[in-house]
Amino acid sequence: MSQPVHLKAVLKTTALTTPLKDGSLKSDQVTLDFTEINPIHQAFAPMVREAAFDLSELAIVTALQAVAFKRPVVLLPVVVASRFQRGCLISYRPHGEVKPEQLRGKRIGVRSYTQTTGMWVRAHLVEDYGLATPDIRWITHDPAHVEQYQDPSFVEHPAHGKGLLEMLHDGDIDAAIFGNDLPEGDDYVPVIANARARDLAWAQQHGFVPINHVVAASADVCAREPAAVRAAYNLLAQAEHQQPTPEAGPRKTLSGFDALRAPLEWIIDACLEQALLPRKLSFDEVLGPADALLKGNMA
């Protein structure tokens, strides 16, 4: 009997990925050798720039940009992380609370213009308040993971080197978008009121929770070891199917082409409005290579 193929993998430890990491789910065709990277976004640039891993978690915006700029990765139809985003837009109470209707012409800080949380907040501002993305000044300090992408003209990169909190405290920006690093304390006020209720209503309307992270394989390993990548995807899909469905709202993980079609088409349109993509991507362009791979038809 042949030995399983070893694939170098980077996935954040979650309820979905734990069975793959502790061996509860395993395959005789593939062994996933995990590298722990924290925070997980530090794996994204090495993956899309140099295919540093065989299998890696990727932010959805990074993944779509990688497809658009023909980076050597194959996006797999599995979502490993989603979350509600409206509460991530924060103002600083000592400078006065900011309401969404007041944001036109204001300065909003975000770690990177391409950060997926930022994409979702901007999409909600467009949908809920009619605020076109170029109507706001976006202040950032990190570049895109996909180095071929260039930020649009309405994005600014100050040279002072301050972090988001410092800029917020100093009044350099009017509000800021935070990811997992949401500041705590009464001085930090969500710009969008009733964010949780709005998020739940949005998810019920659209049928999915805003997608954060998906999984991609390197194009090289897909060509060299297609059976191993198929086995890895099957493990991911099995783990995803085992995730409980919440009592309120759609699932926060997804797998399969049908499950991703509507969410991806919505996200692509939002990315176009924000100048995050150079052109409109089709569903087949995004997931066609994975479809061929999983069917055993990859050239």
TrEMBL record:
Official protein name in the record: 4,5-dihydroxyphthalate decarboxylase
Native source species: Dyella kyungheensis
